Amino acid sequence: MQNPDFDRELTRLLNFSVPLLGVDSLFRHLQDYTLLDVRTREEYEISHIPGSEFLGYPEADSEVMTKLPKDQPLVLYCSVGYRSERMAERLRKQGFTKVYNLYGSIFEWANRGYPLENAQGVRTDSLHTYNRQWSRWVENPRVVRVW
Predict the structure, then answer these.
(1) Which of 36, 55, 63, 87 has the smallest number of Cβ neighbours within 10 A?
(2) How far apart, in Å, are the Cα atoms of 50 and each of 34, 53, 71, 98?
(3) Quick one: pLDDT at residue 104?
(4) Which of 135, 30, 37, 33 has its CA nearest to residue 87?
(5) Which domain holds residue 115?
(6) Residue 100: which of 128, 72, 134 has the closest Cα?
(7) pLDDT tens-digit readout, 79-93
(8) Which candidate, 105, 96, 101, 111, places its Cα nearest to that of 66?
């Protein structure tokens, strides 16, 4: 985590009830995981981590859920990790055994300069930051904040 204030905010927000995966580790081993975006459809369409599937929140897309094997390694993310942690808890209760929460989620991914793509699969620098208050945690000057 590059920003100690963001790290403190995450420590305050999260329950640490599911295993965490760091963005650098995910980037190096992307092919080993199925990525699930648990933000709103609008957030996902503006940008998401390449290769991720839209799952949604608070309701999960049942079509996505039925096709996933229970032992498939899953990495869930949202803006900062709060919604993805809640959804990861639900998936674990449903019998999914390899569920991880991306620490810092898409905000930290963008802060590190890792790629984002839009709904058309085209690389973009835009990122839905939920609202103005939460956008302060996106510090990469290349990222265009949208809310």
Answers:
(1) 63
(2) 11, 9, 22, 20
(3) 98
(4) 37
(5) 4-146
(6) 72
(7) 999 999 999 999 999
(8) 96
Residue 79 is part of a domain; what is its CATH number? Answer: 3.40.250.10
Question: Rounded distance, CA 76 to CA 52, Å?
Answer: 9
3-state secondary structure of 145: strand
| CA pair distance 66, 107, nearest whole angstrom | 28
pLDDT of residue 2: 78
- Asked if 38 and 110 count as a contact pair (C-beta separation under 8 A), the reply is no
Overall number of domains in the chain:
1
DSSP state letters, 13-55: H----S-EE-HHHHHHTGGG-EEEE-S-HHHHHH-B-TT-EE-
